[in-house]
Design goal:
With 116 residues, the protein is of the alpha+beta class. Helix content is 55%, strand content 12%. Residues 5-104 form the HTH arsR-type domain.
Amino acid sequence: MERRHHALSSEGISQCLKLLSDPTRLLMLKLLKDKEYCVCELTAIFDISQPGISQHLRKLKNAGLVRERREGQWRYYAIHPSGPEYALVCSILQQIDEKDEVLQTLRQKEVIVTCR
């Protein structure tokens, strides 16, 4: 199925780029593009406090870049595939080399994290 491209305003693109200019949020989106994560998993992967991770996720959610799913006391996040900025975000995320040292370190941490 071909995805329709939605033209964004200069303000929309600027706001999206501001959000992605933070390395934590950028790499968080890179991970969330492939898989859904619980807040506790992201806390362990990024070695950031729960309030810190929640603040990043709140900004991404408010911008429509991630979606939230609740399951009991747990909250799971994934990239929002139908947001207007989706194509822009995916284009940027594709530029991150899979061999990036920081990304590889984060992916290694995710293997040992479980909160269920």
